[in-house]
Amino acid sequence: MTDDTNRPVSFWAWGWEDRLPTDEDRRELRTQIEGLLGFPERPLLDLPGLEDVELPAPRIEGPDHATTSQSRRARAQHTYGKAYRDLVRGFHGDYANAPDVVARPENESEVADLLAWATEANVAVVPFGGGTSVVGGVECEGDGYAGVCSLDVREMDRVLEVDEHSRAARIQAGARGPEIREQLAEHGLQLRHYPQSYEFSTLGGWIATRAGGHFATRYTHIDDFVESVRAVTPSGTLETRRLPASGAGPDPNRFLLGSEGAFGVITEAWVRVQPRPPYRSRATVRFDDYWDGVAATREIVQARLYPANCRLLDANEAMLNELAFDGSSLLVLGFESTDHPVEDEMARALELADEHGGTCPDGPTHRDLNAEAASGEGDRDSSTEGKWRNAFFEGPYRYNALVSMGVLVDTFETAVTWDQFPALHEAVQERVGAAMDEVCGTGFLSCRFTHVYEDGPAPYYTLLAPAEVGRELEQWREVKRAASDTLEEFGATITHHHAVGRVHREHYHREVPDGYLDAVRSMKRTLDPAGVMNPGALL
Amino acid sequence: MTDDTNRPVSFWAWGWEDRLPTDEDRRELRTQIEGLLGFPERPLLDLPGLEDVELPAPRIEGPDHATTSQSRRARAQHTYGKAYRDLVRGFHGDYANAPDVVARPENESEVADLLAWATEANVAVVPFGGGTSVVGGVECEGDGYAGVCSLDVREMDRVLEVDEHSRAARIQAGARGPEIREQLAEHGLQLRHYPQSYEFSTLGGWIATRAGGHFATRYTHIDDFVESVRAVTPSGTLETRRLPASGAGPDPNRFLLGSEGAFGVITEAWVRVQPRPPYRSRATVRFDDYWDGVAATREIVQARLYPANCRLLDANEAMLNELAFDGSSLLVLGFESTDHPVEDEMARALELADEHGGTCPDGPTHRDLNAEAASGEGDRDSSTEGKWRNAFFEGPYRYNALVSMGVLVDTFETAVTWDQFPALHEAVQERVGAAMDEVCGTGFLSCRFTHVYEDGPAPYYTLLAPAEVGRELEQWREVKRAASDTLEEFGATITHHHAVGRVHREHYHREVPDGYLDAVRSMKRTLDPAGVMNPGALL
């Protein structure tokens, strides 16, 4: 627990306060942006200070029995997630919706007490893990409520039990990525779920939002790792049985996976873990034509080779990640195994890529980490895949600088069947591009596949445009609407792994059948009769 | 549609009427049973005739607008599923709970009309596919209702659309296994979902019950093939969006998967399909000690080799299937691929088996069906795996004979984590064995793994005991209770893929959290306000 004590996280920006961009960082980035994307000259705005933030007076106090805070820092830090619109609002000092109180329960019984208090006092409760939502999952206006309590689960951050035989671990919901890694390492095990928010996001948040992780195939979402879940709802505590599988009725874990705090607070889960995979093969394949890359990717996944990494980067994405500047698309391929070399799988994938004109000039690299450790070799993670991974986790930090220099930056992601993807992709390029041109004068859009399925890819779009300082949210809304409407029209999902939150709620309600939505609402009424759980998220 | 016209299915027994056991079949089987299992002399009872069945007078008629039948055959055929207790009741002419009317809607709008009529007239509706439930999923007493309507979806049996690019097909719920196979074959595709009931069971039934299929790993349940589902509920029609994946809220497909007709009638689904896999490797590994086999199986699945078949048969199961008579356990391994040879996966699996003392005297067999077809070779499916498969689909026919000679025969299946399996298995042997001894004087129990997961196996138990004719159900209940109670006590699931129905309902209600059950009930009230959908199943 160091995020607001020993090493404070920023109240407005992504990540640690000591990693906020320096003026030198920002000047360098500005040069790149202007040079690479041809944006008009960008300003360097002053970074905000906590002392300048104006917070509304709290409407309520927390209950006596709970560990709560109403400090300026705690309330500011719990006001938003980490989407572009969150950073913009925080940057400009808009904290009108700060929670009235932040609770940090240390155990499940304190969670239950808090929910009982909230139900009684008509206080909206917003479960809060890493606070890394990019869909408005952790903000709440509190209209119609006596106040808003942000319920931060970060005090519950322990690995409680490890079953090495079945390769599973019982972990508290507030444990974030690195904490899980460190505690499991004592048992020689890993979860290998690495969302981009890994440094800060928590197991509970991953489950509540059906987070996407490391693996491009097979184990794409946290869903695939969950054996059982415990959650505290206003109507009582739920715990599903720890099972490798079951066919008994609709899967109870699936009701909590994606529930986004609307039913209750996830407190712990049994998840499947594994040893570190020593066998790894990596390659980067170059395609002159993006659609050849798409065809190759489809064949590789339909061949059931189960690549751990299978990220097709379009030319803009390759450029943005400084991996290629010649207009080619790149397929970043990775295989891994705890048990056996994966050279054959890689060879077959490269063969399929080759049939579509994909070239791999540097060839694949194969590693055996155990053998390297035994021979005293150091880590030599200099491959494209390694560069890619580092850039991946650095990405969110770059948002801080971009927001501070008037650059609109956002991502949206989806999944769609292979037959629909070409029409969708073309429409996204055209309409989101047009929206950026109209609203911002120009814009840049890139696409990568984060995950791939036998029946379709999960494309992930990144957009950048010069924003007018003070009008950013208005501009963002226009561009976002173009994106979301296009996904809906072309039969894609509003989100593959970013969740619904408040930002995607309307589109989500049109995506799922009405009868289903009514059924989910009736579930919520049963588990949360007073409707205090994260009102406005999902439902 | 031939099951009660051109080639009638038996009104009481498994399968086609023309495949009912002859006296010669039964004498042969009796000799085997008495010799192999040491049961006391078994009687050969007369098989029942439809003309002897007494049906209660129907309490209601179907609506004018629908295709319905109240014929003796239709009502008798729709009274039960195909569990031991169903065959026994049918054999002895107990048709007190025959549905009053059998409806065979030809399209979705007729289904909707039927549900509207049932809601209005307070008629219980029991969705009926192949009628192969082994958990009382398709029977209904109708207490508190004006009558019972069996809603048979078998007229809706077409593959409606195929997306070869995304490898998916839209199929009507009433299509049974062979019908799906034939229609997809025109496109060079297969579903490769082969439950033991494959010859008769339907896609809709598979989805409603979360049926288990062909693959021991990775694609274990029909759940893994479902892209989207359409269902008609009393409150309207639901259709989930066709998507390879989504992270938008709790997965709507998962609410219908396992819903067992309690919310409505599944009418069609998009499912993932694949070409026939030409590359296949098979092997049978012998273990002197069962627990060595268990350890090897665990390592093979944890190595993520993804065997299509990974069935560990204990000594009794190997004997029952006439594969080994020397007390050894067998691991029947199969790998398959549409894309590449699978010899390496097999070699690695055999290596892991070898480390635990597993021997494979005949070595693995590797095939390339395309190459064989090109060279004009015929099918040479004589391996243990092939024998096993044939016996697998013949299995249910044998029940007919056993019931007619006073043999109690049943199966129960579960899933449990690896760490819990030894204690569970020991308790099952002991307690179910003791129950059979006490109730039937003796008994035989065997076990195989049907599916395996990284965190645990899905053991499937078969039991045989000499029954006292006329007391079979009483005896069965005692033995079944011992089995179900043991599963519950040792943290296993009441069903891995047989579903809940009416037989497992009480244990299911104790397996899932109360709050979850309340939530499911509230969903049902929303979708089926009059409570006419399959009352007593699941809920």
Automatic annotation (TrEMBL), chains A, B:
Q: Which Pfam families match?
A: FAD-oxidase_C (PF02913), FAD_binding_4 (PF01565)
Indicate yes or no for the key word Transcription regulation: no
**Domain FAD-binding PCMH-type per the UniProt entry, residue ranges:** 95-276
Question: Which UniProt keywords are present, listed alphabetically?
Answer: FAD, Flavoprotein
GO BP: lipid biosynthetic process
User: Which Gene3D superfamilies does this one have?
Assistant: 3.30.300.330, 3.30.465.10, Vanillyl-alcohol Oxidase, Chain A, domain 4
A molecular function (GO) held by this record is: FAD binding
What are the start and end residues of every segment in region (Disordered)? 356-385
Keyword flag Flavoprotein: yes
Q: Which family does it belong to?
A: Belongs to the FAD-binding oxidoreductase/transferase type 4 family.
List the protein's name.
Answer: FAD-binding oxidoreductase
Organism (species): Salinirubellus salinus
What is this organism's lineage? Archaea, Methanobacteriati, Methanobacteriota, Stenosarchaea group, Halobacteria
